[in-house]
Each structure stands twice: as structure tokens, then as C-alpha cells.
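Researcher: We're teaching a course module on how sequence relates to structure. For the next exercise, students receive a sequence and then see the predicted structure as C-alpha cells, so they can try to spot secondary structure elements on their own. Here is the exercise chain.
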Amino acid sequence: MQVTASKKEIWTVGSYSLLTLSIMVGFMYLNAFATEVLKIPADTLATVLLIAKSIDFLVSLFGGIIIEKVPLGKYGKNQGWLAVGRWILFICIGVEVFPTPGSVGLKCLVMGVGYTLLNSLMNLIQTAYYGVMGIVAGPNPANRSAMTVNMTRQSTVITLITSFIPTLVSKLQFGQWNYFLVAMAFALPMPFALGAISKLAKGKEAPAGKGPAGAPRITIKDMLDCLLHNPMLLILFLVNVCLNIASNIMQNQAAYYWMYVAGDFSKMTISSLTTAIVGFFAAMVMPKIGAKLGKRGAMRFGYIWSACMMFAMWYFGRKGWQYMIVCAAINSVGMYTYTPYAMLLWMDVGEWYLNKTGKDTRTICMGLASVPMKIGMAVGGTIGLKLLARSGYVAGFTPSADWIAKFMNGCYLVPAFFYVAVALISFIGYRISDSDAARYAQENAAKMAQNQ
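Model: And here is the predicted structure for the students to work with:
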């Protein structure tokens, strides 16, 4: 099918990539901020974040239900969460990396509250965003692909900007305020982008709790049934749980590679910038390859690629930081094959369920898309911090060869095996083709139009 969405709609929807810019300081470097600036011990931090991530997980589990049931004034059910939540999100971004004075307990409390509120709200905003995108794109799969590919390409520019975070937070002359100031500066464009996206859905969706005449009422039991009785959703869920555990184990420890293995945190900027530049060009080419492979094929190809690159980072990274830069850059090439289409898979399984059962759980399916990320953040983040603590890390220590070996095993080898599992599960279990998904979307749109 041909793209029918306007360029303005495609580019406005793609500006969601600015959310990555706004949360990146706290997402990638929160552990470094907490242990190196606030001086919170790694074991203590693991416990605090596990509690916060458990609460975040519960919110993510019911995100779709909350959006379906909680009205926000005159707004549509998805539109309202973007319009109302954007400024609350902005405040939470600052609280998460605020240089709280006083005891370790107080520091943990402020950071934990900021993290919990930020990520809990993110569950709802992400689900609402994809709901708005579905409304604007309509049932045309070409529109949906154009919007997600454009967002991915915009994200490469965002990645170029975020590459400078390690240098900014280590070289600016504001001491403990470096992380906070960088986070707030990077977060400022985000509320305006979410506001513009929200306006695209104005007048196009019903408020929470309302829908087409005769539409079945969605319950929490429906959410559980949707997950348990949709085999494709279960496979997608399991794949993404493993994927997010792997990525969070690695991401939560990566900064320490540059601090203690490479010996200079600012060198991480060189790595991030190189990866971003390579990723920029990869984002122009690899999504086209992914489109030819189909969403299912692109997913499988990308997971195998990432598994190979994780093993390469584990083996070559200890030989020199220059090798790590090359491996990380190559890894980004394969990722752009499937990441533009990752969320579309969740939309596909939602369309499948609606087509087979008549129950419109598409919002719930998109809400469930954030749950594996939350499980990965809780489990992977805790495993990563525990492995870091068991390696013998303390802030400001001098690393030994034995410590480096333990660190590299925990940071890269363990995630590599998770990526292998992800590739195997996706090959064995996921069966929805692009042509089937397109047919489901068209048939569902026709049926729902008859019920209006």
C-alpha cells in the first residue's frame, strides 16, 4: 500500500524521538550519578532501584487499562495523557538526578521517588503515543511503517546529541549539579513535541471509557486473557523480556567500562559519537533491508547480529577501548534493521486478537509492550548492579586485571547469552507475516466502521 499520511503528520509523530533526549541522562547514567556523585553503595542502589522498578512494573502492567478507564477532561483517551503528562514528566526528569544533600537514606528516597514517578508516567505516555500514532496512521500499514522509520531516523540525530553526555557531566564546572543541568537542558524540547503530537488526535478519538456503539467492554480479565490466549503475544512478550534483561545488564554497567577499564569517562563520548554517526547512515539504509525481510525476518536478523556483537565486545573490549568503539558501532548497524518496526509487532498482535475475537484490546497490547522493558529494567538492572558489586567495585578504586575480567564477563558475556536465547525464541515461535498483519488491520477497520 502507498503512504497516505502527510509529511507534517509523519514528522510530527517522529518528534517523539525527543523523549529519548530528555530521559537519556537518567536512563543511561543514573547508576554512575548515584554511585560516583551521591556516593550510594552499589548494593544499596540495587535494592532501592529494585523497589522503584517493581512499582514501575505494576503500573506498566495495567497501563492499557488505566488509559481505557481514566478520563482526562475533554481530551481523547490517548491524547490526554500526552497533553497533561508532558510537564509532569519534565519535573520528574530533574528530581531523578537532583544532587540531594544529606544522608544516604535521604538521597535514596529522593532519587527513588523521582525514578518511580518518571518511569510510571512513561508507561502511560508511551502507550498513549502509539495509540495516537495508530489513529493518525489509520489501518494503512505503510503509514505506520513510514512514521516509525522516520522516528528512528530522527533518533539518530538525538543520539548524536546525547553522545556528549559523558563529557558534559564530567567536564562542566558545576560539580554535583552537572547531571541535573544537562538533564533539564536536554528535556526542555520534549513537552512541546508531545503537545504537537497530542493535537494530531484532537477530535479523532473518544474519551476514556467510551467507544463505538456495541463495542465489548474491556476488563482486567480481558488483559490477562489477551496475554495468555494469544500465543503470538506470549512469544513477543518473552522475546522482549529477554532482550530487555540483556540490554539493561549491559547498559547499567557500560559507563564503568570507560571509567575504570578505559580509564577516562569522557572517552565514552568518542564511542557514543562514533556509534551515532555510523547509526545515522545505518538508519538510512538498514530499515529498507528490514522492510524487504519483513518485520519478522528483520527481528530475527537483528537479534543474531546483536548476539555476535556482544560476544565481540566481551572478547575485544579488554584488549583496548578502540576495539570497543568499533564493535559498538558495528552493533548499531544491525539494530537499525529491526528497531523501526519493533512496536509495530505489538500493534500486529493486537490486530490479530481483535480479528479473531472481536475484543478490541489493541491499547492493552500496546500497554503490555512496556511491561517487558520494565521487567528488564528491574531484573537486568539489579543483576548488573549486583555483578558490579560482586566484582569488588567501589567508587574511585584502582582496577586490577582480575577485576577487569570479572567486569567484562558480567557486562558483556552474560548479555550475549540472553541475545542468543532471544534469537532462538523468535525463530521458533513468532509466526505473523506482514501480509497477514495488513489483512487483519484492514478487516478490523471495516468492521469497526460499520459499528460507528
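Model: If you want an answer key for the exercise: Residues 74 and 207 are 7 Å apart (CA to CA). The chain has one domain: 7-208+219-440.
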